[in-house]
Amino acid sequence: MTEQLNKTAQINKSVAKLPESQIRQIMELGRNIEGVIPFWFGEGDEPTPEFIKQAAVQALHDDKTFYVPNNGVPELRQAIAEYMSALYGRQLGEDRITVSTSGMHGIMLAYQTILDPGDKVVIIGPIWPNTVHAAEVLGARTEIVALREVNGEWKIDLEALFAALGNGAKALFINSPNNPTGWMAERGELEAIFAFCRQHGIWMVSDDVYARLVYDGRTLAPSVVELAEPDDRVIIINSFSKSWNMTGWRLGWLTAPPDLLLSLAKLTEYNIAGPATFVQHAGIVALREGEAHVARSRAAFEERRDLVYRRLSALNRIGMVKPKGAFYAFFSVEGETDSLALTKRLLHDAGVGLAPGTAFGDVGEGYLRLCFAASSALLNEAIDRLERVLG
Ligand SMILES: Cc1ncc(COP(=O)(O)O)c(C=O)c1O
């Protein structure tokens, strides 16, 4: 009887086990408090550029409102292949490109393509939690290999990574530049990781959604795209969300070996049958005409990173590594060991909404994340408030 009434007992076991997002928890608490400065989510504060919006309007006028092939509108796939080829200086064919309904959907498609229940995925963390839970929804096991702060920099311990991978991993998930730490894998590290994965037949899923948001004189993060041959077990995830201010549009793409194209088309069909057609047409314009916008955003985010780093690291109790990419400050507060409790306290006492480090896995305990994709005025106000409470 109880069994019958307890409907949640009947649902998929992996789904029933999924934890609630701590970032959403904070957002739910914070949105009811007047005057809170919300820095919990990871998105820019500016709307989509006008030329991209106009492209979507034009596409609607041109009746781009019908079903299209599951791997995406051919002209968008061509634009993506040209964009990737120009960016990384090597020829990439359209036969490697599948359009997805966002980076998140790209991650899910990649996992669905390669993972069976029980497979082990090694993930470099702290990490945006969706990348872990998406694997767990599919019944895969996840193991986090932690980045460590060494001499004021985030570092990957390659020995620990290879030990975890060598112990029966089917896939590696790597996000560089990383959300939340701003860590960026250097070319030499990527070469070593790629060589290990190739030698052991391990899939590499590389989340490159922040590839263009890098600082200190760089314009592009090193990527395994530069190393992999078309038939290597490598899937790259990209998104229009961060560099083109298109978070709400839900548009991204995967770069994969050509022989995955049909599997990705079938999975797209059974998930969601692809992003809206007129949105895909706007994506073509974003890629072909968006370079000036991407360069402006990168420069603006760098200024804000510098401001946040300068001000936060001047506070006595705060320790922070200068992020090399993405748009997050990930910092620790001396004497604080419960990130979630501290985040709640700051919400109430300082009126600033941050994300607790534990939202990015146990390895994030002791840290807080602030998304600095906001105006300098708002960042200064938030840091003034933090300073008053954290002193
Ligand atoms: C590391 C990482 N990957 C992927 C995404 C997905 O972005 P979207 O689904 O908006 O493309 C995000 C968003 O915050 C992210 O931080």
What's this model, at a glance?
41% of the residues lie in helices and 16% in strands. It is α/β, with parallel strands linked by helices. Strands 2-10-9-8-7-3-4 form a 7-stranded mixed beta sheet, sandwiched between helices.
Task: Describe this structure as you would to a colleague.
By secondary structure, the chain is α/β, with parallel strands linked by helices. The protein is 41% helix and 16% strand. It has helices at 2-5, 13-16, 22-30, 50-61, 74-88, 103-114, 130-137, 158-166, 187-200, 261-271, 277-289, 291-313, 339-349, 376-390, and strands at 37-38, 97-100, 120-125, 141-146, 148-150, 153-155, 169-175, 203-207, 234-239, 252-255, 318-320, 328-333, 352-353, 355-356, 367-371. The strands form four sheets. Strands 2-10-9-8-7-3-4 form a seven-stranded mixed sheet, with helices on both faces. The protein is globular and about 55 Å long. The structure holds pyridoxal-5'-phosphate.
